[in-house]
Write a structure and sequence with these properties.
Order of helices and strands: EHHEEEEEEEEEEEE
Number of strands: 13
Distance between the termini: 35 Å
Largest sheet: 5 strands, antiparallel
Radius of gyration: 17 Å
Number of helices: 2
Low-confidence stretches: 1-24
Amino acid sequence: MSLLPSVAPGDVSAVSAAATAPEADSGPTAGELLDFARRTVADGDLVASLPLDPEGRTWMRLAGPGGSEAWLIAWPPGTGTGWHDHGGSRGAFATASGQLTEQSLAAQLPTEGWRTLELAEDVDRERRLPAGDGRAFGAHHVHQVLNLSPDEHAVSVHAYYPPLPLMRRYSRTGALLRLEAVEEAEEWI
């Protein structure tokens, strides 16, 4: 599962394994975050309290366990996140209603020092998460989450520790993954 770095024009920084963010060693584990997400999606009154918008995602911030942050998110039909990471935070999510599809990369990417990476052929993963299903992930997880239904909303709970410091947004064309933006927490809180 190798990643082949390619430097974008004008980018003189090198890819370095040392540039990866360290995984937090305190607070809830990814498994504990998943347990929280699964318990929370089972709270029908909470899930029903989130307004559904036919045009865009809606969300509500929740108190997560052990200093984590959590979100209840509604996904209209045909919406998704785009490719992103979680700024070095570990996390988990579970589907409360509808079905979500997660497309992810089974490789640890360096977090800094590159603009474009060429991905190996065997790094793509896809899983469907119907209501009640969830998944946990580590600090270097890159994915996109999609509601592929043409007519049904999906609702999910997401939890992260430490609270998200930033998110890196990527675009993807075939095997090329390109860093497009870095969003600071203040931009979505």
